[in-house]
Amino acid sequence: MGISVETAAGYLKAGLSVLPAVKAKKRPAVGSWRTWQTRRPTEIEVEAWFSNGHEGLCVIAGAVSGNLECIDFDCRGEAYPAWAAKVDPEVLPLLVVESTPSGGKHVLFRSEAAVEGNQKLAQGLRDGKIATLIETRGEGGLFLCAPTPGYQLEQGDFAHIPTLATETREALLSAARGLDEHPAAPPRESAPAPAVAAPAATQGGFLTRPGDDFASRGDPRPYLTARGWQHSGTKSDGNELWTRPGKDPRLGHSATLKDGVFFVFSSNAAPFEPNRGYNAFQLYALLEHGNDFSAATAALLEMGYGARDSIGDDVDLSALISDCSSDGSTPATTSGDEEPDEKRETFADPGMIPDELYEVPGFVSELTGYTLRTSVYPSKPLAFAGAFALLAHLSGRKYMDEFGTRPNVYLLSLAASGTGKSFPRGVNVSLAALKGFASEVGDYFASGEGLEDSFLQSPCMLFQIDEADTLFNTVKMKDTRAEMINSMLLRMYSESSSVHIMRKKALQRGQPATSSCIIQPHLTFLGTAVPKFFYSALSERVMANGLLARCLVLEAGKRSEANNNAVAEDFPERVLGDITELIKIGHENALFSEFPQPRTVPMEAAAKLLVKDVRKEADDQYAMFEQTGNECALALWARAAEKASKFALVRAISRNVSAPVIVREDVEWAHRIVFHATRRMLYQSGQYVYDGEFDRQMKRIVRHISSRGGRLSYRNLLRFSSIKKDDLKVVLETMIARGDVTVEKGPKGGDVFALK
Predict the structure, then answer these.
(1) What is the pLDDT of residues 504-524, one digit of tens each?
(2) pLDDT digit string (tens) for 192-239?
(3) Alpha helices in 14-112 (DSSP H)
(4) Residues of 700-727 as b/e, b for ≥16 C-beta within 10 angstroms?
(5) d(CA 277, CA 184)
(6) pTM
(7) Could you give phi then psi for residue 249, rounded to 5 degrees?
(8) Is 45 within 8 Å of 17 (Cβ atoms)?
(9) Is 22 helix (H, G, I), strand (E, B) or coil?
């Protein structure tokens, strides 16, 4: 007998994304189930599905089910008793617990904050093979459950799944991680090697390596507190709670420290990566030496860590760092009679833009802070982009620097679905309506002609476009309409200090003769997109056509913890006053006349010298890639110095809207954020921009292997890559021959591919 409609409807009513399931295959019985990862089915859909007598029922975890998470105990649930013994006895009875057909356990709860994707929490060696003991089903994950045959509720019910505080949820996960018998390496999260772990020849001239010694007896706490981390409590099991810089400890913690492992789960704790553990040596190397393990080793040696081999004092640092390099890679070697591989042009990943670069004094800081305080899911990159774009718009046709640079900027903010991309745009619209310039803010243009026509109403426009990846994707596909939009965006960017000649058809609508041109059109563009879709839209043609080069791309990363204290509040007086002042300046400078007279923002001598240095650096980069013929790099570096000048100008205006002056700090900041973003875009282009279909397939395979820890079985690669079996074989053979991947035998005898 199948699952009843009433049962499934009850799950739906309880806020769960419930689907019929094929029990034998442990998957939904509705074909592709991606849709239900982001929206719950309707009552009609549930009734239609379960009227067909399906034998199984499954639930999708994550935000769609109210931040639902499932801790899955495999291997017949052998780790469950030890885990339960470590859990707070007041919390354990609140959880929903069910048994599975294999003898395992499911533990269910909801979280106040967003949950991550599926995580492996504990592994162990069983029958000579690595087995998963405990894992989670989180954002986008799926699990079969009662009343599917073989699944039996032991405690609680699905209609009353508890919602746990962030720290309580983390305590449950930490208890599971503490049962890990087979920690992954690198990074090394287990106890360090013993003092004499191997002959000195394999220890780079040491009996005990400084890094191992520090991991064993060093204290990472002073280095954390020096960087603004706060110790926010200690659990009864000795698990220390730590809160990242800039976060109120009362709103929850961001990492834990126990048994020598600093485990970070916050996505806003740069330079740490989320959902990763660091031993004391890795933490020290990252915070004090920028992940330079050679420098960290040398410094620790001076501090008295490590024991030299008595044979001699010469130290081979390459041996010390070979197993703990920042990317886990192994140095390549060649024998004397082999020709060394010619290195392909690749770009290092500079990482996400550091949070401190989103700190711009004055107007931008005030509006960014307001947006962060009032957003349910605050994101500093998104809030900054909204505030910076609004100020750039309000400064249009009012200010320019001594070189004639105008403050029109193009910004792209990348963030996953559900991270609040629309909130900063809404803040800008509300301010525009309140201060009387709503007609200057648009959210859509269907064509290049439509974009052009909008300037007949106002020569200064702010367009805030969602799903901006669509524009770049259609350019890649050579869509005529999109290319017209692209062409118009390029023209408007370059014509901000000159004249835009309207097309003739625009005059056939009864427009006066003075509408034949737009003097000093000022367009500010703020686009948002999902990172995956945006990067997939990249191609060499898109990178080189100029539009992306004019944009500054900001990446928001994962969704932040929910701000449960977010409430509506009045706009800051500083923001309202500055907007009033900028509007006044616009009238004084004939903003609405045909020939505006922008004020020239003075530039201090030190700032002017630095501007020249920035140009020289960008020109040097351009010249270097001119030699290699890399069109993507040429396009980005060609506009880098110009963008830096625009950003320095807007920063100066932010500090003082009525009498701005560009100082050296403005140029330094603009140089850092623009050049960092440029290098990040070059790195991303190397991951996504392809030369032909075969190259596209190879890069897709690299991304799939990389996203799963650098190793992936052939079976899963075939499943995830969406490449036909015969084609995949040819691609993998080529990648092995090129040295991109290596192949080895997995625990079950199958092929496993690893990135070199």
Answers:
(1) 554 444 444 445 788 889 999
(2) 333 333 333 334 455 677 888 888 888 899 889 888 899 988 877 778
(3) 43-50, 80-86
(4) bbbbbbeeeebbbbbebbbebbebeeee
(5) 10
(6) 0.54
(7) -55, -25
(8) no
(9) strand
